[in-house]
Amino acid sequence: MIEVNELSKRYGSTLAVDSLTFTVTPGVVTGFLGPNGSGKSTTMRMLVGLDAPTAGTVKVGGRLPHEHEVPLCQVGALLEAGAAHPGRSAFDHLHALAVTNGIGRRRVNEVLALSGLAEVAHRRSGGFSLGMGQRLGIAAALLGDPATVVLDEPVNGLDPEGILWIRDLLDRLAAEGRTVFVSSHLMREMAQIAQHVIVIGKGRLMADLPVAEFTGALSGRRVTVRSPQAAALRELLLGPDVTITTVSRTELDVEGLTSEHIGDVAAARGIPVHQLTTSQASLEEAFMKLTREAVEYRAPEFARGEA
Ligand SMILES: Nc1ncnc2c1ncn2[C@@H]1O[C@H](COP(=O)(O)OP(=O)(O)OP(=O)(O)O)[C@@H](O)[C@H]1O
């Protein structure tokens, strides 16, 4: 469990994190979304105690960062790819980390296998691709078998196969009852890996809800209807809060009604329907809409600040 309470971080005149409050619960993969520069990395650094908050608190497993005796065993983090010494092999890098944290050699081999690096374990990590570097970072995060896993942009540099791999891995970690918190500015990837999202814009909390609700609530549903009697059906469907666009003589785009309702109305009047599809806006569209609103909302404040 991660509990963030009224958390703020200021760097000079930049308020990177602005009174954030949220909880990340165990058992599901929680995505941390926001455009570049919105404060995700700063928040994650404070989570693991690498940066001190200007105000507010963050607790992992009920404790403040400095209260963890062996931090690696409470919270495993991937914060910066390529943190390994390039001359060291993956095995040596992980082994050194293990030794300094009182973790056995067996666990090193386990995380190497888990991250798909067993075969290249003794190669210099300097020759690793970006994706392999990410895998090594994830292996290091899991080394202490932590109850909480925090990964900053783990899909960066991963190919589609790598993204599938990370999705499976995160699902497994969550199913084991761990708290899994993963940041990304890439909506599509996040839609594939998270079940819940926390969205920030300019350091502020914008949304905290299940992925499906996030897309549904923000975008509204649009139903595409194809019928040889589209014009007649259109007349029957019109009403308050219903927007109907006539795409062609046989096709309508309907906003504000469910496909069930449209199908029932057509059936009741004996109007043939050849297609009835609900298109849910992609997470990306929903995200752009949300963060655009965040920027607009913040604009007057910036103007005041500069005056
Ligand atoms: N050490 C620092 N000193 C000064 N400003 C900083 C520092 N770290 C972050 N910032 C600023 O704080 C804001 C938030 O940055 P942060 O890296 O947390 O965002 P992010 O959402 O992780 O972005 P990205 O996706 O690009 O990593 C930015 O305006 C950034 O320039």
Automatic annotation (TrEMBL):
Transmembrane segments annotated in the record for this chain: none
A Pfam family hit: ABC_tran
Cited SMART domains: AAA (SM00382)
Domain of life: Bacteria
All copies of domain ABC transporter, residue ranges: 2-227
Key words of the record: ATP-binding, Nucleotide-binding, Transport
Coiled coil ranges: none
UniProt record similarity statement: Belongs to the ABC transporter superfamily.
Name assigned to this protein: ATP-binding cassette domain-containing protein
